[in-house]
Specification:
The chain is 24% helix and 20% strand. By secondary structure, it is of the alpha+beta class.
């Protein structure tokens, strides 16, 4: 049912009442070395973005980093205020050039946080991207900044993430090939359905600069060539 994707304020509060709000520790995903016979390129560094619709902070972390503190970044942390965190992996091409071919990992706070910890995953990089699209100013001016924040606060991102997990049982599934504009507009219009996470048959992604059939979405099976 579509209604499970939208939460009342009381439900939202209960989802995050056990969180410690003095700081949030963010954990980065593990960079793969090999997968299905493919050797992944070397990781150069992480590009981190934190965004709440008003404040956006971008910085880099060395490739050996595995976590960081939101408080230490100086990002304004407000109790239970919605924000996204994305970690773009910048890797080295065969020509030893930096490239951001692979889709970012990510997560959203407070919906996907547990005990003041926020684990960034490749899957929820898409979740964070959709939330960012909602929070970004829209040229049409259909919604105010406060309305956008409310959409994100009251949407059930945990259920959204669970749907991605279920669809990800198909090793070829890549959420980045979904109709992202349709997903964003349906969340704002409170009419979202999990069918919007289906990928239209025949939809293809850009070829990899690394060859070998890499998918830009790390959990997905390599593309046929």
């Amino acid at each position: 049912m579509m209604t499970v994707f939208f939460m009342a304020a009381s439900v939202l509060s209960s989802c995050s009442q056990n969180l410690q709000n003095d700081d949030i520790t963010v954990f980065l995903p593990q960079w793969p070395v090999q997968k299905e016979g493919l050797t992944f390129p070397s990781l150069a560094f992480w590009e981190i973005t934190i965004f709440d619709g008003s404040e956006k902070m971008t910085f880099t972390l060395e490739n050996s980093a595995d976590s960081f503190s939101i408080l230490a970044t100086g990002f304004p942390l407000e109790k239970n205020r919605f924000f996204t965190v994305s970690a773009r992996a910048v890797s080295l091409s065969p020509q030893n050039e930096e490239t951001a071919f692979f889709k970012a990992a990510g997560s959203v706070y407070p919906h996907l946080a547990e005990d003041s910890k926020l684990n960034l995953t490749w899957q929820d990089g898409f979740t964070a991207f959709i939330a960012d699209c909602i929070l970004e100013p829209d040229k049409a001016g259909l919604y105010t900044k406060n309305q956008k924040q409310s959409f994100c606060e009251h949407f059930n991102w945990k259920k959204f993430s669970q749907c991605l997990t279920e669809k990800g049982r198909n090793p070829l599934y890549n959420p980045w090939l979904c109709d992202k504009a349709r997903i964003v507009s349906s969340i704002c219009g409170k009419r979202f359905s999990s069918i919007y996470l289906n990928v239209k048959k025949g939809t293809l992604e850009c070829p990899s600069p690394f060859g070998g059939g890499f998918s830009s979405y790390i959990p997905a099976k390599k593309l046929s060539e």
